[in-house]
Amino acid sequence: MFGFLNVLKPAGPTSHDIVDKVRRVIGAAARLRSVGRIKVGHAGTLDPFAEGVLIISLGQATRLTHYIQAQPKRYVAGIVLGATSTTDDTEGQIIPTPGAAAPDEPRVRRVLAAHTGSIQQVPPNHSAVWVDGQRAYDLARSGKDTGLQARPVEIHSIDLLAYDYPRLEIAIVCGSGTYIRSLGRDIGGELGCGGYCDRLVRTTIGAFDISQAKLAEDLVLPDDILPPSAAVAHLPQAVVDEAGARIVSWGNAQELGEHARIEGEKVQDGTEVVILDASGKLLATGIVKAKGDSLVLQPGRVFFPRYGK
Question: What is 184-212 written as a DSSP string?
């Protein structure tokens, strides 16, 4: 089992709860196929109140999760204006904002536009960010100051889907490390009425879409396992023949040419690539390196050592 599962997380359970449920499904399938214990991980935590796409990695695919985490993500968020929350979502104490007034739609649109691009964002106090060896949420629950500082995040776009005060619904495309709860809090603060998230759905991560996601209990294995190449579909593909595959599988460089090719892509020294055999099997990730007048494939993470044996 080497690949990914596109799992639909419902609102309520933690991401860890879903991973545990998938582990039980995987364990049962592995026993039926007389396979040993399978390593299971996930790419990108969702808060308990949130729902949507949760990508589960299996086996050696856990070594590829950072590629998925780095991909743009799309969310649909419901924001309640006119109040704040101690956790920036429905899990905390809801505090109405005294004298809150409904902003008009043009003002809402201006504030949304101001929160796109490269912005500085303070994570929620109730988050898993590490602060001096402790999780921020542990400090917050004990009444201590988390001291969280603003950090840069990338908001590619925010679209207004619906607005009927106090409810605001938006769609966000953002980069890694963005907290949508913080975005809801900051938008409400900028509007002068306060705000918190009461609904959050992750609809896509890179090439993984909610329309193909399945509840953990509905998974059929191995049919629902997506190929590991799905995590690196954005990278140029280098294809090696059998002789080249054996060289790569030992972690050795393979010169581009007779036994290795990159079709339809312009690459140069330092270009990151994925290395496939002739059947499309993902053998390794690596980089292109200049060697004299030639370019070579230098494998990094190798997934099938001693290929062909």
Answer: HHHHHHHHTS-EEEEEEEEEEETTEEGGG
Distance in angstroms (rounded) separating the CA atoms of residues 49 and 291 = 52
CA-to-CA dists, residue 175 to 1, 46, 167, 221, angstroms:
29, 15, 25, 31
Single-letter amino acid, residue 278: A
Query: CA nearest 275: which of 258, 290, 296?
Result: 296
The mean pLDDT of the chain is 91
The answer to whether residues 269 and 251 touch, using CB atoms and an 8 Å cutoff, is no
Total-model pTM: 0.89
Asked whether 166 and 96 are in contact (CB, 8 A), the reply is no
9, two tokens: 């997380």
**Dihedral pair phi/psi, residue 72, rounded to 5°:** -60, 145
Q: Is 254 helix (H, G, I), strand (E, B) or coil?
A: strand
Which residues, in sequence order, are CB contacts of 3 under 8 Å at separation 6+?
Answer: 57, 58, 59, 61, 225, 226, 227, 228, 230
Q: Residues with catalytic annotation?
A: 47
276 band by pLDDT with thresholds 50, 70 and 90: very high
